[in-house]
Amino acid sequence: MLAAGFPNGNVASLAWIAPGFILMTAIGQPGSQAFRLGYVAGLAFFLATLYWLLLIPFPVGAVAAWLSLSAYLALYPAVWVWLCWKLFPVSTGLAAAAYSDMHGKDLISSTTWLQRLVWALTAAALWTALEMIRARFLTGFPWNLLGVSQYRVLPLIQICSVTGIYGISFLMVWFSLSLASAFWMLWRRPTERWGWLGELILPLLALMGVLLFGFDRLEHAPVPTRTLNVTMVQPSIPQTLIWNPKESTNRFRSLIDLSRQALAHAKTDLLIWPEAAVPNILRYDPELTYPAITNLVETAKVWLILQADDAQPRSPNGRSNDYDLSNSSFLFSPDGQIRAIYHKQRLVIFGEYVPLSRWLPFLKWLTPIEGGFTPGTHPVPFHMPELKANTSVLICFEDVFPQSVREYVQPNTDFLVNLTNDGWFGQSAAQWQHAFNALFRAVENGLPLVRCANNGLTCWIDPLGRLHDVNFDNRSNIYQAGFKTAKVPLLPLGQLRQPTFYNRYGDCFGWACVALAAAALLWLVKGKLKPQDATHK
């Protein structure tokens, strides 16, 4: 049910029900069994939603990545189920209540309304706290957080401008557990016709308040007074060709030809190429890429943002093999000059670096990469003064990290750009999941996000989370080679962007959930809430 709530299942309503179902499978079970049931649920979810890792054209590494990443991520729902039942307010202990009363059939109805309310809120805070940890621990992997399933519900997702994505996750878990309690009360106490309504009244009121906030934000969205013509080129290069040096010249010439077609098709101010489109190390390739790029922008009189590898000498003499290799984005001006360079900060494990390779060299066998990139240290604004426009660039999956993206947004930033290569995963759900995870960054920070992909969802997202220009010429195949020209709204001249609450203050809500979860655990450790499976120690 939970997996079906995400692309390409897209049954968002199931994600409101699934957490409660997952938790209720463990009712009346000892702690170890509760943990196992949560782990199985988590493993089923991640194996189903991350299946596209198997499409990486490197079978050994693909299988290892799919299994190991899913096995690690499944620990989070396992811990959640275990902790929730450890914190359940039954003074006699969960195991005793369970086995003395038909495996806990009256466990929930034996508590008071206030106890169930506090427990549901604590469980929602625990879920949110674990999502906060997942987004940060071991470099973080905030992919398909629960709230992402609601990407189509525009009034609901507007709350992200205040709480970030975590506010939606919290509300969904709270509602799901309250709904489960309501059904439980209706089953165990059928004569109390309205008793179940008390379980739902507060989460329903909270949901109504969030929706009213969202409708108001949608209704009063500012109308743009000026726009920028942005052309996004999607070359759709197979990953096997990207790894084949013999194809570098052919695929780069195809990119140039496609760009010329795009420039001839519509007038544009800014041309954008995706990640992995440019072969070789751009600044040190005077024969193929660099002269072709400068000739293109000078002839067309257009700005260009692209991704390419970059090498930075470590010493003044720039000796051979004494440099740092970076995954970088470049801003070219119409006069053929490089105006800005950004070095990617968040690198993909086994895709852009191999961890512990010095001590565990066999890990290199799991990936086709030969070396590793050096991460950047800070965002770099891209200023285009002649266009009176400013942007910042995110590379690959940097756009799925809520806590990081807000650092790329300054008061004069007109829009964000994401350059990505999802060609690793063929024609799968990965492209849709990536785009819908990124969608929330536009809402959280209140500005457009332009996505240029090697294959997949090349489009742009407005500040309210709506996708624009998804298909090519009204055709449904999003994976083909092509180009799109969009009118991206800019700030009025001389006006700075009013930051959203989330952009200004970050994960205040998320950290509050972490604090609440920590307080609950401290209370448990100190014995004010007794461990519910104490008889099984």
Q: What structural keywords apply?
A:
12 strands, 537 residues, Nitrilase/N-carbamoyl-D-aminoacid amidohydrolase, 2 domains, alpha/beta, six-stranded mixed β-sheet, single chain, disordered C terminus
Account of the 3D structure:
- This protein has two domains: about 5-220 and about 505-535, no CATH class; about 225-490, Nitrilase/N-carbamoyl-D-aminoacid amidohydrolase, CATH 3.60.110.10.
- Helices cover about 40% and strands about 15% of the residues.
- It contains 17 helices and twelve strands.
- The protein has a six-stranded mixed beta sheet with strand order 5-4-3-2-1-12, covered by helices on one side. Strands 6-7-8-9-10-11 form a six-stranded mixed beta sheet, covered by helices on one side.
- Mean pLDDT is about 90; it is low at about 90-105 and about 530-535.
Overview in brief:
The protein is of the alpha/beta class and 537 residues long. It is built from 17 helices and twelve strands.
Helix vs. strand class: alpha/beta
Report the major sheet.
Answer: 6 strands, mixed
The H-level CATH homologous superfamily of the largest domain, spelled out, is: Carbon-nitrogen hydrolase
Query: Could you tell me how far the N terminus lies from the C terminus, measured between alpha carbons in angstroms?
Result: 33 Å
Tell me, what's the shape? elongated
Helical content class: 25-40%
Amount of beta strand: 5-15%
CATH topology of the largest domain: Nitrilase/N-carbamoyl-D-aminoacid amidohydrolase
In quaternary terms, these chains amount to single chain
> Can you identify the CATH class of the largest domain?
Alpha Beta
Number of strands: 12
Mean pLDDT: 89
Unreliably modeled segments: 91-104, 531-537
Trace the largest sheet across and list its strands: 5-4-3-2-1-12
- Overall tally of structural domains: 2
- Order of secondary-structure elements: HHHHHHHHHHEHHEHEEEEEHEHEEEEHH
Radius of gyration: 25 Å
Tally of alpha and pi helices:
17
Architecture (CATH level 2) name of the largest domain? 4-Layer Sandwich
